[in-house]
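Course assignment 3, question 2. Fill in each field.
Student: A.L.
Task: Predict the tertiary structure for the chain below.
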Amino acid sequence: MQIGDITPVNILLNWTVLNQSNSFDTGNDTIRYYLLQWTKQGSSTPVTLVNVSASTTNGQYNVTWANGWVLNTYYDIIVTAVNDVGYGYSSIPLTILTDNVPTYMYTPVEDPTTNATFINVTWQSLVDPTYTGRDPIIYYNLQWDQGNSTWQWLTTPNISVNYFTMNNTVWPFNNGSSYRFKVWPLNRAGYGASSLSIGIIPSSPPD
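Answer field:
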């Protein structure tokens, strides 16, 4: 059995079906369906996902949230061929680790071009699978504290780059006041951990 893809939306499983004309493989009977099961590691009770028709040319099934899987969890998956006599031997278990929300985000930094009119914030793109939850980052969202410790979303709704320019005419801020910013990464599983916050004081350059 092979994995076609693992995402927080689905797990695509593939396996080679038995040759119906090979009596040794089929037990001298017609394969009726394939039983697909998985067991959450730490549990002794397998969960039946689906009975897949034996008429399929290539065994394939998409596991989704509806099947009850959990993020960042190990599962052992097996396929068993079934004929009119009963269950045959099961495949060797395939162990998978489902994807997760992002587990880390780099702290943003102030771009040197920040002044009394624009606050420019940049951050390192998140690409390491250890931190991305093994799923690519789709967007980043940025928050600021408005100078009063009340966090507010700045990006509406999302940005796909690793920088943001805050215009004083759109988001009023005071020259010389301190503001905090933090970044939230988003993958298909959802929001993960936010970055630490950075304090920025917009100001005009000296004359």
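Instructor remarks: The mean pLDDT is 85. The longest helix spans residues 23-26.
Grade: pending
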